[in-house]
Automatic annotation (TrEMBL), chain A:
Name of the protein: Hydrogenase maturation factor HypB
Keywords: GTP-binding, Hydrolase, Metal-binding, Nickel, Nucleotide-binding, Zinc
InterPro entries on file: CobW/HypB/UreG_nucleotide-bd, Hyd_mat_HypB, P-loop_NTPase
An annotated Gene Ontology molecular function: GTP binding
Pfam family for this entry, one: cobW
Family from the record: Belongs to the SIMIBI class G3E GTPase family. HypB/HupM subfamily.
Organism phylogeny: Bacteria, Pseudomonadati, Pseudomonadota, Gammaproteobacteria, Oceanospirillales
Ranges of residues in domain CobW/HypB/UreG nucleotide-binding: 53-214
From TrEMBL, chain B:
Binding site for Zn(2+): 73, 76, 89, 92
Reported function: Involved in the maturation of [NiFe] hydrogenases. Required for nickel insertion into the metal center of the hydrogenase.
InterPro entries: Hydgase_Ni_incorp_HypA/HybF_CS (IPR020538), HypA/HybF (IPR000688)
Family to which the UniProt record says this protein belongs: Belongs to the HypA/HybF family.
One Gene Ontology molecular-function label: nickel cation binding
Gene field: hypA
Keyword Zinc appears in the UniProt entry: yes
Protein name (record): Hydrogenase maturation factor HypA
Amino acid sequence: MCQTCGCALPDHLQHASNEHDVHTVEVLEGLKAHNDEVARHNREHFDRAGLLVVNLMSSPGAGKTRLLEATIEALGARYRLAVIEGDLDTENDARRIRARGVPAVQITTGSACHLDAAMVHRAAHALPLDALDLLFIENVGNLVCPASFDLGQHANVTLLSTPEGDDKPLKYPVMFRASDLVLVTKTDLLPVLDDFDVDAVAAHMHRLASAAPVMALSSKSGPLDAWLEWLEAGLAEQRRPAFHPVPPAEEACLLTRPQGLV
Amino acid sequence: MHELSLCRSLIRQAGRVAAEHGALRIRRVCLRIGPLSGVEAALMREAFPLASRHTLAEGARLEMTRCPVRVHCPLCRQEAEASVNDLSCPRCGHWQTRLTGGDELLLVSVDLADAPLPPTG
């Protein structure tokens, strides 16, 4: 590094002579502008198809796939579901979903620690969006990176399994602040854990100024009711007819009448 | 580490600005980063030279301004500085505050030069 000005060139003198050529251009644009644009495009696809898209995030092993299996079991007969699976490698999770008769697209990210909007866009095109009610995106297991990338989803759900400890919201504020719902999972393990307090999770969410609901469940032994109701309410909201003002008939007529017929 | 993919996207953005101005080199890139953006300045600094190799931004300087976390309390009707994992109002303790700063992730400006990259090695 150049010791004179801190630039990455080894020899500052090489560029010092051109100093007068430099001019500053103000940009003021978000660093994720490109991803955000693709995410907006995805959301348009999803909105047009009238389905609810939920992005599931958590540490590895918090029970995202198990939750999906239980959700498919509970809602599969009434709603048309599909899953986009994000993993560094293997098709294992997609296989578990397909075994339950639900279409699943596996994205293997290689070394990437998160899904981005372009990956989801490609995967979404492999699904019959018009023939779906609910689409789950199972993000890469990671409490850091996935929070920074909008995928075009309608809601973020973060899972926090009881063995992880109840203070995760304070340790990963970016992830939990971005959550619309926190699901405490593996509550069947609570009897053997003496240091997990479900109420503390809600208190920690308040410290992050988040009013996101906190629900506790076990995908193995239930109860799933609150989670299923939340999904159904979300879908109903997504399908509520939006108000589109219609221009007065006469005006519309004038605008569309071909010239010469007036 | 998502900082590498963010750096690549940053260099694409800066490259677009350079192309619009017909510049041959990017000499400096200025960012504004808040601690709640989910981006680590130190990792950005490491990723930038890798992502800028063989681009107009090769050899450019990356400058990052860190923004403080700030919240507005609807009860006190005032803004105050807060910490990343405690966004409640430091005055009255009310938790339903609104974040007014600290999640920035912004490309502020780019310094462009007309001279091509000097031969290295």
